[in-house]
Design brief:
Order of helices and strands: HHEHEHEEHEHHEEHHE
CATH topology of one domain: Rossmann fold
Largest sheet: 8 strands, mixed
Distance between the termini: 22 Å
Length: 287
């Protein structure tokens, strides 16, 4: 199918950050055990009430027309797609992801939602017609894509004139579990960034990136995520970081175990602190 010409790019806003080892950028190369762990963390994060509150906050700024077709790019196991599928007025939701493992899990979890389907696709080369969707969503996806400009260009192409783009991502350079300088637990957070996030600073360029792709962006909204009482997601982050450090030979298995135990000691005694700043943006494709 012939594609319409994209709007001219204004040039890269900044040079794309290159960091080794983003598991989600290389998701088709992971084994099933790794994919299962990532799938569990995705669902754990999605179920977290603070994460749900942030989703409600930014999604509430979106208006969709009756009978809308919605596309989620980089859907993972599909929690945001499931949420979008029950919106009033939404006729169809399609979630795409390059991982067959994630898509199979997403289909299982959404078996009762008849207006939701999942398809394999790379966000930089979408298999859909021009101007075929009313809303496109990137939820914690763009930071994992080595060429976010290409993904935004594809979102522009498949959105109808007047359609809406919604992007939500972590300002992952702010990820911290430290209580002070030299806190050993922070090494776990840094290891997670190295292994899971391609560009932890991407959200700071999100508005000019969307404008360069041809969209008319609204202002960037800030969302804070803190876990202190009864942490779950951030404990999973620390566990992953400790395992990553041990698996790479940077620390001993006993040290990794000690770091996990220290995190739980803090949780049990009310001393735990974990924080990530997030930001969201709603933009419009011009008529």
């Amino acid at each position: 199918m012939r594609r319409t010409r994209r709007p001219p790019r204004l040039g890269r806003v900044t040079q794309t950050i290159r960091r080794p080892g983003d598991a989600f950028a290389q998701v088709t190369e992971l084994d099933d055990a790794e994919l299962e762990q990532h799938a569990q963390r995705l669902e754990l994060r999605a179920a977290d009430e603070r994460q749900r509150a942030m989703r409600r906050e930014y999604l509430s700024r979106i208006e969709v027309r009756d009978g809308a077709r919605v596309l989620e790019i980089g859907c993972g196991t599909g929690p945001v797609s499931r949420e979008l599928a029950v919106w009033p007025g939404v006729r169809e939701v399609i979630g795409v992801d390059p991982s067959p493992f994630f898509l199979e899990r997403a289909r299982t979890l959404a078996v009762d939602l008849r207006n939701l389907r999942f398809e394999p696709a790379d966000g930089r080369n979408l298999p859909f017609a021009n101007a075929s969707f009313d809303l496109a969503v990137f939820h914690t996806t763009l930071c994992h894509i080595p060429d976010p400009e290409a993904a935004l260009g594809e979102a522009y192409r498949v959105l109808r004139p007047g359609g809406t783009l919604a992007a939500f991502d972590g300002d992952y350079a702010t990820l911290t579990v430290a209580l002070g300088p030299g806190d050993a637990l922070q090494a776990c957070a840094e290891a997670v960034l190295d292994s899971l996030v391609h560009d932890p600073w991407l959200v700071r360029r999100l508005r000019p990136l969307t404008a360069s792709a041809g969209f008319e962006p609204d202002r960037l909204w800030s969302h804070g995520y803190v876990e202190s009482e009864e942490p779950r997601y951030m404990l999973a982050v620390i566990d992953l970081g400790a395992d990553t450090l041990a698996g790479s030979g940077r620390i001993a298995e006993a040290t990794a175990h000690a770091l996990k135990q220290e995190a739980r000691r803090r949780a049990d005694t009310g001393l735990f602190f974990g924080h990530i700043a997030y930001a969201s943006l709603v933009a419009r494709r011009p008529e």
